[in-house]
Amino acid sequence: xxxxxxxxxxxxxxxxxxxxxxxxxxxxxxxxxxxxxxxxxxxxxxxxxxxxxxxxxxxxxxxxxxxxxxxxxxxxxxxxxxxxxxxxxxxxxxxxxxxxxxxxxxxxxxxxxxxxxxxxxxxxxxxxxxxxxxxxxxxxxxxxxxxxxxxxxxxxxxxxxxxxxxxxxxxxxxxxxxxxxxxxxxxxxxxxxxxxxxxxxxxxxxxxxxxxxxxxxxxxxxxxxxxxxxxxxxxxxxxxxxxxxxxxxxxxxxxxxxxxxxxxxxxxxxxxxxxxxxxxxxxxxxxxxxxxxxxxxxxxxxxxxxxxxxxxxxxxxxxxxxxxxxxxxxxxxxxxxxxxxxxxxxxxxxxxxxxxxxxxxxxxxxxxxxxxxxxxxxxxxxxxxxxxxxxxxx
Amino acid sequence: xxxxxxxxxxxxxxxxxxxxxxxxxxxxxxxxxxxxxxxxxxxxxxxxxxxxxxxxxxxxxxxxxxxxxxxxxxxxxxxxxxxxxxxxxxxxxxxxxxxxxxxxxxxxxxxxxxxxxxxxxxxxxxxxxxxxxxxxxxxxxxxxxxxxxxxxxxxxxxxxxxxxxxxxxxxxxxxxxxxxxxxxxxxxxxxxxxxxxxxxxxxxxxxxxxxxxxxxxxxxxxxxxxxxxxx
Amino acid sequence: xxxxxxxxxxxxxxxxxxxxxxxxxxxxxxxxxxxxxxxxxxxxxxxxxxxxxxxxxxxxxxxxxxxxxxxxxxxxxxxxxxxxxxxxxxxxxxxxxxxxxxxxxxxxxxxxxxxxxxxxxxxxxxxxxxxxxxxxxxxxxxxxxxxxxxxxxxxxxxxxxxxxxxxxxxxxxxxxxxxxxxxxxxxxxxxxxxxxxxxxxxxxxxxxxxxxxxxxxxxxxxxxxxxxxxxxxxxxxxxxxxxxxxxxxxxxxxxxxxxxxxxxxxxxxxxxxxxxxxxxxxxxxxxxxxxxxxxxxxxxxxxxxxxxxxxxxxxxxxxxxxxxxxxxxxxxxxxxxxxxxxxxxxxxxxxxxxxxxxxxxxxxxxxxxxxxxxxxxxxxxxx
Lengths: 394, 231, 383
Description:
The complex is a heterotrimer of chains A (394), B (231) and C (383). By secondary structure, chain A is of the alpha+beta class. Chain A has helices spanning 3-16, 22-56, 79-86, 131-134, 157-162, 200-206, 225-233, 245-289, 291-300, 304-334, 356-383, 386-391; strands at residues 61-66, 77-78, 101-112, 119-127, 139-143, 152-156, 171-174, 177-186, 196-199, 211-212, 214-218, 240-244, 338-342, 347-351. In chain A, the strands form three sheets. In chain A, strands 1, 3, 4, 5, 6, 7, 8, 9, 11 and 12 form a ten-stranded mixed β-sheet that branches. In chain A, helix 2 (22-56) runs antiparallel to helix 8, helix 2 packs antiparallel against helix 11 and helix 8 (245-289) packs across helix 10 (304-334). In chain B, 32% of the residues lie in helices and 27% in strands. Chain B has helices at 47-54, 77-87, 103-108, 118-131, 147-160, 177-193, 205-208; strands at 5-16, 19-31, 36-40, 62-67, 70-71, 88-91, 165-169, 197-201, 213-218, 221-224. Chain B has a six-stranded mixed β-sheet with strand order 6-7-8-3-9-10, with helices on both faces. A four-stranded antiparallel β-sheet of chain B has the order 2-1-4-5, with helices on one face. In chain B, helix 4 (118-131) packs across helix 5 (147-160) and helix 5 (147-160) runs parallel beside helix 6. The two termini of chain B are 32 Å apart. Chain C is α+β, with helices and mostly antiparallel strands and 383 residues long. Chain C folds into two domains: 4-46 and 254-380, no CATH class; 53-214, no CATH class. Chain C contains 14 helices and twelve strands. In chain C, a hairpin with a 1-residue loop joins strand 3 (80-93) and strand 4. Chain C starts with a helix and ends with a helix.
């Protein structure tokens, strides 16, 4: 008999005996299901958070901050700089012929969360009318646009979902002023969808500010970035940093995720270890339950490889089953859930998306754990001295 | 003189699969104090059933069993457990030592059910192991002992709580001739010098030769067996 | 106790299996300890926060400044013993990635309000004399290797100087530290008056006020009274005692406890299955041995207790190891998330051992129950 068909025969025999060992076999399935479920849920959350941030940025947009600022909130740009930045080379034009740049202010307002009635911060972005050209992804889905000069706002769908009193016609109290919600927008589930948008000029005058936080421009093309950046950073009257918007949000997501990644990795490693011990346990007892059977096969003349592969295939199959079960449960429970995570300047509302890639890699991880768990017991089975094993009473 | 063990009109049957097997019907037996009784007979004769009844492991369907003046045929299984702990020491064909415990720990097991302090337990264990000649093997696990040594440990375990009665089920069934003889001599010694009452089931006439009385069990009834038939 | 050797020996019948089971249980309780340790630690910090100190910030959001003119009005509220203020100054040293958490304040008010701040003798006088002086936290001094007398140039992406210079240069006059070590001493403190005079905008405003009050029981009324002073003004306030503020701040992050409990629930369920299976196998293999014990007069309930005891010992020892490791890891975890060293509270360890006991009992009950049905006669005969 060829080695391959030997493996097939032994493996088949082995798998047919699983129902007799259902209790201990299900330890692998349930153990791995638990690990994969938790890993998929936790990584699904952190990946979706990053994705929402990264999706906010586009490679053909650039964001200009005060030099040294890590983010919009810690950046101050004086009015004098606005025109220089907007008219720098590489900036696209709107259909009306204006430079496609928007000097923006980012404020925060504390609102009441629907879920628990607790206060949490929501970002308020003051944008110029050019924003419509710069951010075509921002689409009104209800109501109308705010009118410049009036204390009106539009609200992102995410923010509206997470917070109370953000319906059309509701009022929001900002500093020394009351604003009316006139429209609802969506922007593909990105970070802006968790914010309120208002007219920059009106917002700045309400806050009595003469400085903005940032200027965002639409570039003529992705390639125009270097030209734009060089023009601004070599200008001695400016003290600014220029970043591709995509890179800026990438950096924000890395900052947000350092902590979560740490937690997730820790939880993942611990759970994978636990599952590994469980898998080892199951496979050792599977081998010891089949001592006589394996010895008999060896005595008849079956090779060690057949025995080894039969144990490995069993471990693999069981852990694969567990992984599929765990991934399916996590997907059913969490996919599409809306989650809000915040700090004291804003809350990011995002949808949990469990991607095929995440499912695939966690199933792969589970299979590796299963194989590792099968390896040592498989080797023990192969090394079993035939004569003593035959005498063992199973 | 009243008998230590008195069995009157005992009936016992088992259900095996769908069949009801009558093992003992109306059996009478007295065992005197200080006696070494061998019960012989082919397998299925009911000798083991009888032994289980005497040792309080099982209850008769009908009839009376009195040991040391106490009726045990009506006791609940919980009461029987307490009774066995006080009155019976068991010796089995396959020794049935706990493989994870050392010899001394094995011997100590019955004493765990007494109120003895740990020091007293230790002393009694020591004495029992001395008696069976295995004091130097106290720290060994059963797997490190020969069959004969294991059976001696089992005997020490049976003795250690000073039971009224020793019950042995084929104690030499798994041993070679030489080892068997030494185990049997030990039992005989216990019977003669310590006055232990022993009831032993065996199918080996040589083993039965060491007993002071032999009875033949066949199809649930008793008869005298010839002395030292195969010695 | 005398049964302990018997139980312990039974546990080691199959060494590999017991070790592996113990390892999985231990690993699960490391997770349990760390996760509950963090939530318990946060609760502990919240409970240790003062409720006799109020924080007064803008009603709109912490990023909105309040006028310095509020100071006198807050001081006049009955029950208020003293008021201090703080202006957040986001700064960096040389490179933007070297972020320095700086704050401008009235130093003598600050130290009167927070007696737990330790400042060397004379440093306060020196600060009063030196406009561009600074007190820095001990942790910051250690991290950067700065010492008293150094002149440190800081930059800010928010605040610009009137004279147009990039650098805000400060002379270090002293090193402060928080007495209990729970709050990290990592800030760079400067004189508010100097900072306010030098900055180009935002002049005459502060980020937050602190007020010490005479009776924590009245904190709600006093807070209401302060907020009432500024209601319907351009600068409405929101006043909370420190404890409530931190609680709300943590609630903002999102529902942490839910995630922690969901993960731990999944882990514990898996664990239950694992130990349950181990106990089931172990009992199945030992039925003849248990029958021998019964022959020797061990009652059915004694045998049940032996099996339960074995599971308790297994889970208890393993959980103890896991929780012990979590306790060892806890201080570094807390340092990693920016809170001072905090030991894993004994209450978490107690709860952990309790959970371990429940896992043990639930997983051992089915096999233990099975032992009751052992017929001695059958088991000895190998049936």
